[in-house]
Amino acid sequence: MRTLNRRDFLGTTAAAGAALTGLPGLAQAALAELTPGVPAGVGTYARMSTLPGKKPLIQLADRPPNYEAPLEYFRTPITPNDEFFVRYHLAGVPDANDPALDPKTFKISIGGDGANGAATLTLDDLKAMPAVEITAVNQCSGNRRGLSKPHVPGVEWGYGAMGCAKWKGAKLKDILDKVGVKKETVEVSFGGADGPVVDTTPDFVKSLPIWKAMDEHTIVAYEMNGAAIPHLNGAPARLIVPGWTGTYWMKHVNAIEARTKPLNNYWMNPAYRIPIGKFPLAARFTSQEYAPNTPITEMVINSLITSHRDGARVKHGKVAVSGIAWDGGYGIRAVQVSTDGGKTWTDAKLGQDLGPYAFRPWSLELSVRRGKTNVMVNALNTIGQTQASALIFNGAGYHNNVMQSITLNAA
Ligand SMILES: Nc1nc2c(c(=O)[nH]1)N[C@H]1C(S)=C(S)[C@@H](COP(=O)(O)O)O[C@H]1N2
Ligand SMILES: [Mo]
């Protein structure tokens, strides 16, 4: 909930946006970066745009700010802070210098009917607690929504609504232990310092099942890749929910409540739900399961070719293809590449293992003849899951993990 200085952060970027309209070059540059398959209309409004402290990202919306990373930014398993995507639901984002985000005065309130008491934590209090570090992928539930067939409404993300960082913070479990949680607690909810500009828009509040809130990997982070968390990625503190989609990763988190009853709001239902039975689901959120759907929880296994774009021109002979793979935290066991439409597969070489929640790099040297070569990639994890060979359609365009297929043009 936003209480202080309800000033529009986007007063500044809207002006920048207006200035950009006069620069077709940035719209042109965005066209070149768009993921093949997103609706043609995206090309009319997307543009490369540089937010303060960031490298150019693909701006898909400005109010609220929705910016995805171009493919080149995924060539390393860690996504630098200035290349990390930005996603907001509500346009009332406090300015970087808003007192609501000031590390000296920032406070997190802890309470709820499932807590034995109430407490307030400052950033210093948080930093004084035992610190944990975890490398984890933050991926929007709707990443690749733009590739849905038929197209569905929502931000038409291509491949870039994701990033992987090393996060440092305090365990949520330790924070909850400060007040003590009743055994009747079913969920823990989270609010952030941003809020709606129009009062009829529901404020963004999300909850986790108590088991995931108490997981030792769920943390309230104040560092990202060894630096303070960037303004638009949740400064000065955000929730990290390794393995789960970005919707739970509350930015500017300033309210934590233990609840004896399920949170009932727009953002829990009808938003962010997947049909029961269509996707593999090991991490269940039973207090929110109302047939026919259930909250989206863990990310599905996925991979991306980052060395080449679809249609890339290469020289025939040896071509090194590489990319990344990730899942909901079970760990990538193998990545396989096919150049015959999926009839036969070759294991790629896996790169540095930064832990089960991180991007896992992979690479493979192919022998490419002159002409067109199709390259398909599929990841496998330690619990036997693989990517989808055909889209599992759902109206919100979530969980698109169809095996990617690109064409290389060899001369
Ligand atoms: N306070 C706040 N936290 C939020 C959101 C938001 O709108 N407000 N969006 C969520 C969603 S849907 C995603 S995908 C991630 C995006 O994180 P990023 O902007 O750091 O990339 O933040 C999550 N946390
Ligand atoms: Mo998201």
Q: Which keywords apply here?
A:
mainly beta, 5-stranded mixed sheet, 5-stranded antiparallel sheet, Sulfite Oxidase, Chain A, domain 2, Immunoglobulin-like, binds molybdenum atom, 411 residues, globular, 25 strands, binds ligand MTE, 6 helices, disordered N terminus
The CATH homologous superfamily of the largest domain is termed Oxidoreductase, molybdopterin-binding domain
| CATH level 3 topology of the largest domain | Sulfite Oxidase, Chain A, domain 2
So what's the oligomer here? single chain
Poorly predicted ranges: 1-20
Biggest beta sheet summary:
5 strands, mixed
Structural class: mainly beta
Q: Please write the CATH class name of the largest domain.
A: Alpha Beta
For the residues shown, what is the average pLDDT? 94
> How much helix is in the residues?
10-25%
Strand order across the biggest sheet?
6-5-14-9-10
CA-atom Rg in angstroms: 21 Å
CATH architecture of the largest domain: Alpha-Beta Complex
Structure description:
The chain has 2 domains: 99-146 and 161-295, Oxidoreductase, molybdopterin-binding domain (Sulfite Oxidase, Chain A, domain 2), CATH 3.90.420.10; 302-410, Immunoglobulin-like. The longest helix has 12 residues, at 10-21. Helices cover 10% and strands 31% of the residues. The chain is mainly β and 411 residues long. A 5-stranded mixed sheet has the order 6-5-14-9-10. Strands 7, 8, 11, 12 and 13 form a 5-stranded antiparallel sheet that branches. Bound molecules: ligand MTE and molybdenum atom (MO). Molybdenum atom is lined by residues 87, 140-142, 246-247.
